[in-house]
Amino acid sequence: MVANKFTKLFIIGASMFSIFFLMLLSVDPDIQYSVDDIMKDPDEYGNLDIFVRGEVGNSSLSLSENIFKLSGITYVIPVDYSGASLPEGFHEGLTVAIKGKFIKVEDEWTLFATEVITGCPSKYETVDNS
Hints:
By secondary structure, the chain is α/β, with parallel strands linked by helices. The chain has one domain: CATH 2.40.50.140. The chain contains 2 helices and 6 strands, in the order αβαβββββ. It has a 5-stranded mixed barrel. The termini are far apart.
């Protein structure tokens, strides 16, 4: 009887541990880099899928060519978003996060976006309670 309870508890514990371990394996952590982090040594990130945060450069958005410039403090990365859709609320001057492949094209590093993410502006607006 005691062995039977121990066996059941062992099987349940092992099953829970296995499920937890499989969940950890399936989660792919997205390390988010700044534009400046990437451009300090772009060869390190070349031909990799990366997750980058920066500001959409003023006067850089070209809807006809599906490109814009992602600005950091010092550096700028051209972004080709033809493989992604622009979310609602996207505009120049906005801080965005971009997932995509970082590829060198004709001596210029370009981020080919697969996903463009904006924050919710209302989340950051102040409310006047007076």
